[in-house]
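Researcher: I'm preparing a figure for a lab meeting and need a structural model of a single chain. I don't have an experimental structure, so a prediction will have to do for now. The sequence is pasted below. Please return the structure as tokens so I can convert it later.
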Amino acid sequence: MTQIPANFSAAPDRLQDRVVLVTGATGGFGRPLSLTLAAHGATVILLGRNLRLLEGLYDEIEQAGYPTPAIYPMNLEGAVESDYTDLADNVERELGRLDGLVHAAALLGAPTPFAHSDVETWYQVHQVNLHAPYLLTRACLPLIGRGGPGSIVFFVDDKAGAYWDAYQVSKRGLAAMADLLAAEYEGSSLRVNCFNPGKTRTALQLRAFPAADDNDSLPRPEAHLDVLLYLLGDDVGEHGSVFTPRA
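Model: Understood. Here is the structure written out token by token.
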């Protein structure tokens, strides 16, 4: 596990003129992350399944005077390969490149004993947590870093033990995919890293542990966004690492 430098502080223009795509852009992490990236100068491509929420986030970013974002509605549960190639084609046509890609979308499913797991849920969780990042990354690789250093960040989780079913398997598969990609792009201008936020007050965390005594005291996603600001800058040297929140 790695942490960002203790003295890191993101300059207001750290992401000036950078183009960053965020999946799950209206989710627990995605929404504050998208706002923060825009506040630091990035043109953010907001990918999510709920058009109304995407439009609301778009308006909020625009009204704040940040760079005008782009909206890309997509339901990762049902998207197929051609949907991702179309997305990459649209990004290339409209923006010319990608400087960063953040895989923040996630689906918990229904943690349950393996013998009683639901096949449909298994497929849905793997589609969102593993297959979608694979297809999106594969489609966008030719665009990432076209204008300079590029970064890909995968949100991972280390829930271990019994009953986590498809969620655990998909997240471990995602971490393995990130390791593979990092090894293949070693020495290039592309940086591939993971972020494990740990226990954070999001809807997914509350669904996973609805009766936990410490739910009210958990840090909110906003407390961890400095890690993402660091990883999406053009001066990141780390590659193939798993970052955790700053202590």
